[in-house]
Design a protein that fits this description.
The chain is an alpha/beta fold. The chain is built from 10 helices and 8 strands. The protein has helices spanning 13-23, 29-39, 46-53, 114-125, 146-155, 158-173, 189-201, 237-240, 243-253, 279-296, and strands at residues 70-78, 86-94, 100-106, 129-134, 178-187, 207-211, 227-235, 257-266. Mean pLDDT is 89; it is low at 1-9.
Length: 298
């Protein structure tokens, strides 16, 4: 018997809200499914909806790791002040001799999963030298599933974890195949970290394109020199609530920024491994991100 996949429009908003709690580590997988089952008493097939939202990473691959347009490898780099002495990342270069403008791709709150690796490959096919660090490297690396990855990342020293991302940005910028022009993009936790890096790196970062990430600390916004392209989901109160203060600080500082909100989307709409994925919004936002980087990293 063939079962049709659950689509985004068929999922009750209450299930999305539960999934958002689960994704951000507020409840574990068992509690997530338990609460979803309770919604069935209201006549909602919530358990099927909840299960469908769990990632299917085989769906996420859009660029094969053997694609002739790119060359991918895992690399190690020093990370002083981080959670370990060295970090591991996924480096993807376009075919050719370079040098290339560089883009750091920052994962969500669960380590370097296959979706983020695919995003790095997408950036490389667009002509960028891309590095996707694995924040879990000091504790053994992404464990192969998001539940364990989320738990592992939550236990890390969060200040040192950001330092690991900063070290990755600096290592990539100085790479022999890099032009020295650097952009950063990231998703969820990685979006918030993309905002943080814009404050931490100042003029060393040329462009940032965070996806549904918490705004930077307003007191540090005046340090931002990068051109900012900030992507929001329409239904994402936790993240969107940080925007007014962040925008006010950027306006006061004269920061070059653009904000885009994608209608009928939930947090995580770019991730094509779950039904939160919205193809039109994901494609439009990614095209905008690539155009943003081509403009400011040229």
């Amino acid at each position: 018997m063939n079962h049709q996949p659950v689509t985004q429009l068929q999922i009750d908003q209450r299930v999305y809200d539960l999934y958002d709690e689960y994704c951000h580590g507020k409840i574990d997988r068992r509690e997530y499914l338990k609460r979803a089952s309770a919604l069935a008493l209201l006549g909602i097939p919530a358990l099927a909806m909840a299960t469908s939202l769990l990632p299917q990473y085989a769906q996420a691959q859009t660029i094969s790791f053997t694609d002739p347009r790119i060359k991918a490898s895992y690399v190690n780099y020093p990370s002083p002040g981080g959670n370990g002495e060295t970090m591991r990342g996924y480096l993807v270069q376009p075919a050719g001799n370079g040098p290339f403008p560089a883009v750091l791709v920052i994962h969500e709150n669960r380590g370097l999963n296959p979706y983020i690796e695919d995003v790095a490959r997408r950036a490389a096919t667009a002509g960028f030298l891309a590095l996707a660090p694995d924040g879990l490297a000091p504790v053994g690396g992404y464990p192969g599933n998001d539940d364990d990855g989320r738990t592992m990342q939550a236990k890390l020293d969060q200040v040192k974890l950001r330092t690991d991302m900063l070290n990755g940005a600096n290592w990539l910028k100085a790479h022999k195949l890099s032009t020295g022009k650097l952009g950063v993009t990231g998703f969820c936790w990685g979006g918030g970290t993309s905002n943080f890096l814009a404050t931490a790196m100042g003029s060393d970062l040329q462009a940032s394109a965070p996806y549904y990430g918490a705004g930077a600390e307003t007191a540090s916004v005046s340090k931002i020199k990068a051109a900012m392209l900030i992507h929001f989901a329409a239904t994402d109160p936790g993240v969107n609530g940080t925007w007014p203060a962040y925008e006010a600080a950027m306006k006061a500082a004269g920061t070059k920024y653009e904000a885009q909100t994608y209608q009928d989307t939930q947090h995580g709409f770019h991730n094509n491994s779950t039904p939160r994925y919205v193809e039109a919004a994901a494609k439009l936002s990614w095209d905008r991100t690539m155009d943003h980087f081509k403009k400011y990293l040229a």
